[in-house]
Amino acid sequence: MQHPVVIIGAGPIGLAAAANAAERGMDFVVLEAGANAGAAVSEWAHVRLFSSWSELVDPAARRLLDAAGTWTAPDDGAYPTGGQWREAYLQPLADALGGTPGGSVRYDARVVGVGRAGRDLMVDSGREGDPFAVHVEGPAGRERLLASAVVDASGTWTRPNPLGADGYPALGETENADRFTYGIPDLNDPAVAARYAGKHVAVAGKGASAQGVLVGLARLAKADPGTRVSWLLRRPSVGDAFGGGDNDQLEQRGKLGQDAKAAATSGMVTNVTQFRTESVTRQADGRLAITSVNGQLVGDVDEVIVVTGFRPDFGFLSEVRLDLDPALGAARVLADQIHPDHHSCGDVAPHGYKELTQPEHGLYLVGMKSYGRAPSFLALTGYEQVRSVMAALDGDLEAAGRVELVLPETGVCNGAGAFDDPDAVASVEGGCCGPAAAEPELISLGRPGQ
Known about the structure:
Elements: E1 5-8, H1 12-23, E2 28-31, H2 39-42, H3 59-68, H4 82-98, E3 103-106, E4 110-116, E5 132-138, E6 141-147, E7 149-152, E8 180-182, H5 190-196, E9 200-204, H6 208-223, E10 228-232, H7 251-264, E11 269-272, E12 277-282, E13 288-292, E14 297-301, E15 303-306, H8 335-338, H9 353-356, E16 363-365, H10 379-393, H11 397-401
Parallel strand pairs: 1-2, 1-7, 2-3, 7-16, 8-15, 9-10, 9-15, 10-11
Antiparallel strand pairs: 4-5, 5-6, 12-13, 13-14
Helix pairs in contact: 1-3, 1-4, 1-10, 3-4, 6-7
């Protein structure tokens, strides 16, 4: 019996993989650790994307939804929030996929192990001819599924990078977790805003997500002037942290950079450069003191927002053979193209099954996970990846080898647009709304947890 393709993750890229499989008449099972489609996206539902709808809907998925006749396509020129993306596209797509012949989408199904059926990592003989064994934990306990191939689109959302400069949590970071937020808080929520209003907030990170945090905090400062921010940057200067501004081909990203730059120079934000965190300690008054490896001290901190990117989880892939870049943890062939020190999202060449092939025949890492720790990922890139991969798994190497994607020169580099209407030009005294922040960008399109 032919086993189905197992797709890990019901986020944008995992569901696009399933749509391509359905279009080809392939049997598939999507395994999602969350309670619904786009579960990770729902955790940043308040964040507006840089991408318009035209860049957020996979072509095969659009054809499937159009054929179903129950879907109303969004305005291609509008910029949705994460919540709108999930509700208007991801969940309807998952529902449609669940009704296709040979297809299913399962929730509360966390993948905890992938291996070859009957063979551990060290066994060579007959390895390629055996199905995969996918170990899943769900409400009914643990089960073992057999798969003809595995497409891992589990993303990186569940593993945010810590504040500590060594790649591990700083001393005291875990012990003071009640003062830490990883990601973009919803500062439009009064309860969340109350946590930061009138406080001294340390923001770590330099990417677009961090800049979105600065913009939101600047709005709070307008209402409560007691709000102040220490922007912790590992680099020696702010430099080009704010992107291309008016020259950015992603209009909303350019606006965000301009707003964040205004916030960072408005007097509300203190830029603390060359700051690599060593420790976090609790002061006698209950506030925090953050110390860098070179002895700098930022004290009297009430809250810390860490927006320093994410990293992939390879723990459940320990029994399959991988070829990854040693620094990024990305598919090795992609590493030079996606390294954040010398690329823009749009200058990554469209790629597919050849670049994503792993030593374990039939296993592909796609979506944000294929980029490892690299921060800038386009949904469009992921859609092209899975179009090619599913064609290859179907034996259609001619289609798999085609390039069907043209990217903008400075890519959609993933979510984290401004919180409000993207067409509104923010302006507060001394500049625009918001502080900017730390290193890799927070929300990359297609970073769902399993």
